Amino acid sequence: MADGPDTPHLADVRALLDADPHGCALACSVRDTDGTIVDFTLVHLNAAGARFLGRPPDELVGRTYRELWPETVTDGTLPRYRQVVNDRAPLNRTVYYDRATVSGHFEFRVVPFGDGFVARFVDLTKLTLGPEASAGVHLYDALDAAFDGFALLRAVRDDTGAIEDFTREYVNQVGAKLAGRTVEDLVGGRIRDSDGDTPLFGPLCQVTDDGEVWQERLTAPGTAQVWEVKIARVDVDVVAVSYRDITDHVDQQEQLARGAAAVHAAAIRTDALQAVTAALVAASTPDEVYAAMGTVLRPSAGGNGLVVLLAEDGRLVLRYHAGYEPDVVSRLRELPLTHPYPAVRVGTDGEPRFLRSPAEFAAEQPDTTTAISGGGRRAWAFLPLSTGGQLLGALVIGYARPRDFDAGERADLMAFSRLAAQALQRSLLFQAQMSIAADLQRTLLPAALPPLRGARHAVRYLPWTHGADVGGDWYDVIPLGPDTAALVIGDVAGHSVTAAATMGQLRNALRAYAVDGHGPAAVLRRVNDLLLRLEPEAMATCCYLELNLADGTVTGVLAGHPAPILRAGDETRRLPLPPQPPLGVRGARYHDTALELPPHSDLVLYTDGLVEDRQYPIDRGMDDLCAAVRSAPAGDPHALIDHILHAGVGPTPRRDDVAILALTVDTACGGRPAVHARRP
């Protein structure tokens, strides 16, 4: 480098870099014997740069680039820095790293300086939507949490000023997932290098030059994926692109539109279709669907016999029958796909068959030794049970007299079968999901809570959702020592199998970190890091209390969760724990708060469904709860919970799951184990 490390010129540069609020670094070239630059040595790093890199300067200064960031050596970074020094040409670059030695979304400005360079890097993840002094929300964290894919692109122009490509300066996590790539792969790259001649290149150029917003639905060639894309100019040569995969939404809209049109047209032709529709829509389980077919569809269609055959394991299996003779039913119990019975062909090729007489029916099964009798019927409609591209089986309607099946009647019967198939598929899926939900609910919550020496506890879990939905509320009591234990209650956002699975992961992680000897803040900090790695889109609240029943203290953390209620003597109040960020917030910090836990006191932990919903303010619900705890019987946690649930606390009717964990400190236990809490 032209200036030595102690020259006044270099000292001034160091002072200038130290005054910069963003990261700044000064590096000098490491040359081979032939003068080729083979590496760079870090000469100076300001305090902001050290914070961004998460390491003190004395661990970094004096070491080479290859030593400090070996994972990025092969990504083209070193040649770019070498070009800056050799060509004396500044470099602007946006990169995203998620690696062991460096993690973040950076904007680099690199300029030559002597035999080296000065690099200024801005950690874009620290940009906020409000002033830093007022703890504004991090802009890129907000964009990463967006439902839609989102990208910022900067135009690359040729010597004539024409746009030849675009560089990705930012892509959020959802956008990268929709593209089937990672953020690190995309940021800093050009769209034509990775996507070829994308159909969006023309609109991108148009919006960049004229500033008019462009919005369209695009269908990807070869995949039939439908994307809703919006492009807007946000700065000179910078455009924002938001995009969403709406394939399922479009498919659902089209299916609903087709179904509605068919139902409407058929309803005009016959009032019977309305009765069938109402009956099938109201049916939730397969048995209810079959009952609707037998009591409504069969008479509405004019038939005197009905059979439902479903495809299972390479055969058609009889799942419902009405009006058929016992000997015919016994032959229909199970049909191989090679049998000539007309329903078999319909159940495999999806094409309806209408047989107008016994002669046509007999012609379908010429071998009388294997033929299945038509019983007392003289005409048949064999209809496919097909919906959403899936063929479930066949529906057979038999008639007492021959009939012609004109076009209108055939249209009505196909409408009947489509409605029946949709209802049946929905009910089968509902039944499967109910089974999964029930299994999850049983396995993810503790079967029993351990006894505590010096305290008694009780718990209730009140699910609000029905059917396949599973709540994300959980609770736990974790023994930590002879006189210490952790009380935990929390709530994962959402009602789904995914929310329940996330709840199970969190509960297990909390137990593991707690038993490992970490305090409340350390436990939640580790669980938060784990959640961000495993489920970056998930969010959860949690109240974690560590009790020391020997010295009468409690140490706790509220991670976005409502405060527990403490009743001690004549005083009932919220436990004074400061609110802290919920789990799932990047960069969240947690701190312990230690409080006194008086003897003979009652402690109530709960989830927010007990005290609030969209129409019921939480402050009002908390007041309700304090009043209920104040007037509840003393000395029995079970009676305390029962009193709360019958005292009109919170919204009525409830619109969310509720978990309540009550603890009574009982120093009269004399060191004997307390009674087991009942499972809700």
TrEMBL record:
Residues annotated as domain PAS: 32-98
Gene Ontology molecular function terms on file: phosphatase activity
SUPFAM superfamilies in the cross-refs: GAF domain-like (SSF55781), PP2C-like (SSF81606), PYP-like sensor domain (PAS domain) (SSF55785)
Keyword Hydrolase: yes
Keywords: Hydrolase
One Pfam family matching this protein: SpoIIE
Keyword Hydrolase: yes
Record-linked Gene3D superfamilies: 3.30.450.40, PAS domain (3.30.450.20), PPM-type phosphatase domain (3.60.40.10)
Protein name in UniProt: Serine phosphatase RsbU (Regulator of sigma subunit)
